[in-house]
Amino acid sequence: MSGDEPRAPAVTPADVAAYLDCLDRADPVAAARVATDLLAAGASVADVLVDLVAAAQREVGLRWLTGRWSVAQEHAATHVSEQVVDAVAARTGRRAPRGHVVTACVEGEWHALAARIVAEVVRDAGWRVTFLGASVPSRHLVSYLHQSGPDAVLLSCVQPSRLIRAARMVEACRAAGVPVVAGGPGFGTDGRWAAPIGAAAWGATARDAARLLDGPLHAAAHTGPPPPAGADEYVAVLHRRRDIVRLAVAEADLPDERAEDFGAAVAHLVDSLAAAIRVGDPQLLVDFAGWQGGVLAARGGRRPLLDVVLDSCARVLAEHPHSGDYLRRARAALTDPADR
C-alpha cells in the first residue's frame, strides 16, 4: 500500500450496527466487548468513543425524537454507553500530563455523556482532566477554577435553550483568566454562537477539542463581534418567563398529568427566544421551534400546542420589538418549512 492511500476506518458501519443492537437489548457486557475488541484490534480511544459510542448515541437520540424509542429505552441505552466509556477509560494508559483541563456541562444541561467522551479523548491525548459532570452551577465552577488553576475549560452544551447560562459561565471563566473551548450543538451545529458569547474556540467532536488544546487559547480577548443592537432585550424576555409559561398552560387547558411537561417545554422555548436575541440570530429560535414541533408530532401532540406557545410569547412580549420579529419568523417557518 502506498503512503498516500487512505487508511481504512477503524470503526465500520457494521461495528456501529452491532453496538446499537447491544444498546437495544440494554446489554452493557456485549456493548463493552464490541468497544474493547476494537481497541485490541488497534483502534484508538478517539476512534472508539467518537466513531462508535458517540455515533450510536446520535441514532439513539433520533429514535427518541421520532418516537420509535421511549424515554426509558433512551435512558437505558445511554446508561450502557456510560458503562462502555468506563470500560474504555480503564484500558487507557496514563501519560505524564501536558497540562490540566476541566470539563463541565452548562448549568441546567443534564446530557453529560458527550462531555464525558471529550474528557476521555483529551485524557488519552495526554492531559490531566477533571470531569465535573452535568449541570455545573457557574459560581461553583468559578470557585473550582480559582482553587485548581486549570489551563482551559471544556464546556458542553447540547440544547441552545441553555445558551444564556453558557454565556454567563464563559464570562465567569474569562474573568478568572481561563479560556473556554465550547462544544456541542447548543452552540450551533457549526459553532456559530460560541464566539459571540466569548468562547475562545469551538469543536464539533472530542478530536477537535484535543486538537484545539494544542493551539494558543486566549481568555482575555473577546473573539466574537460586538453584541447586536437590542441584545439586552433578552433580559426582559427572561423576566417575563414565568408569565409566559402561566399564560400558555392556561390557554392549552391540558390535563394535570400533561400540564407540567408542557410548562417545561414552554420555558425551553422562551429560553431559546432569549438566547436568539442575545446572539442576534433568529435562526436559533426558528430551529428550536421546529425541533420542538417535531417532538410534539412524534408523540401524538397537536400542532396547535406550539401555536399556543408562540401566541403566549407574542402577547406577553408585545412591547419588545426583537421578540415580536423573531416570533413572527418562527411562525412563518413552521407554516412553510421551506423557509427554515
UniProtKB/TrEMBL annotation:
Matches recorded under Gene3D superfamilies: Cobalamin-binding domain, Methionine synthase domain
Domain B12-binding: 98-227
Gene Ontology biological process: homocysteine metabolic process; tetrahydrofolate metabolic process
GO CC field: cytosol
PROSITE patterns to which the protein is assigned, alphabetical: B12_BINDING
Pfam families tied to this protein: B12-binding, B12-binding_2
Keyword Coiled coil among record annotations: no
Record key words, sorted: Cobalt, Metal-binding
Keyword Amino-acid biosynthesis among record annotations: no
Cited PANTHER family: METHIONINE SYNTHASE
Protein name as catalogued: Methanogenic corrinoid protein MtbC1
